[in-house]
Write a sequence for this structure.
DNA sequence: TTTCTTACA
DNA sequence: TGTAAGTA
């Protein structure tokens, strides 16, 4: 299928699809007349995968790593052959760990800011009372 | 009409 | 990333 149909079926923009090819994530498996890019079902699977990973904040290198363990001609939704699917799972879980760490850091920061806010409230309160008296 | 490349905002 | 121009 050509890029227009791919865009319709993946919900990705033409720009994004071409961008992924440029970044070496997903390239059309074949070329047609006039150098037209022809995508296969497997390419579609990879694009769907990229879309989800991008949504989860995977960076280019990580997405490439994941796609690298995805063998050609094998549908993503299938049985676990014990290797590539296990690597996909590991990659996803790894990202979960990173996101948990990020949330923890954000909460820590929020707590610090709360503490600072309390401190300043106390300071301004004491200033008010001392100048008033 | 669709796609490709290149370039600009 | 969207969009536009000029092609094939």
């Amino acid at each position: 299928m050509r890029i227009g149909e791919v865009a319709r079926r993946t919900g990705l923009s033409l720009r994004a699809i071409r961008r992924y090819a440029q970044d070496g994530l997903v390239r059309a498996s074949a070329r047609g007349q006039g150098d037209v890019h022809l995508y296969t079902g497997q390419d579609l699977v990879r694009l769907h995968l990229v879309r989800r990973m991008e949504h989860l904040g995977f960076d280019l290198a990580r997405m490439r790593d994941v796609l690298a363990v995805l063998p050609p001609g094998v549908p993503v939704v299938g049985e676990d052959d014990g290797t590539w699917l296990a690597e996909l799972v590991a990659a996803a879980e790894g990202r979960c760990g990173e996101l948990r760490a990020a949330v923890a850091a954000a909460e820590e920061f929020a707590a610090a800011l709360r503490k600072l806010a309390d401190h300043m409230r106390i300071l301004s309160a004491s200033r008010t009372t001392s100048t008033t008296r």
Residues 2-4, 14, 18, 34-37 of chain A lie near DNA strand B (CB under 10 Å from a C1'). DSSP finds five helices and two strands in chain A.
